[in-house]
Amino acid sequence: MAAYAFVQLGLGRFAGALGDIGVTSLMISLIPQFPFVRAIVAGARRQHPEDQLLRDLERVRAQSPWAETASAAGWLLLGASFVLRAFGVS
């Protein structure tokens, strides 16, 4: 996705490039959160108590504080891409 964003920038498609960079940021931010996502799924099946799920969430946040920033940046870039596309910018 990141490489395709550079290709789109080279072709003058600014809105598409912003969206691709946003998706790349979101995917990168999910990498360290995989144990938490797995804990949510296990919690839905009632295999883990809720307090353990909250501890897992805090542990994931403490181990990779950059993930929330990357996720927020990804959503912001993706939203900006949609707004630009709505106004006709390619």
Task: Provide a quick synopsis of the model.
The protein is mostly helical and 90 residues long. The chain has helices at residues 2-10, 14-30, 34-44, 50-63, 66-86.
For the termini, the CA-CA separation is 17 Å
Give the SSE order as H and E letters: HHHHH
Strand count:
0
Low-confidence region ranges: none
- Could you tell me the strand content as a percent range? under 5%
Model description:
With 90 residues, the protein is mainly alpha-helical. It has one domain (2-86). It is 80% helix and 0% strand. The protein has five helices and no strands. It has helices at residues 2-10, 14-30, 34-44, 50-63, 66-86. The model has no long low-confidence stretch (mean pLDDT 84).
List keywords for this structure.
0% strand; 90 residues; 5 helices; elongated; single chain
List the helices and strands and how they pair.
Elements (H helix, E strand, L loop, with lengths): L1 H9 L3 H17 L3 H11 L5 H14 L2 H21 L4
Helix pairs in contact: 1-2, 2-5, 3-4
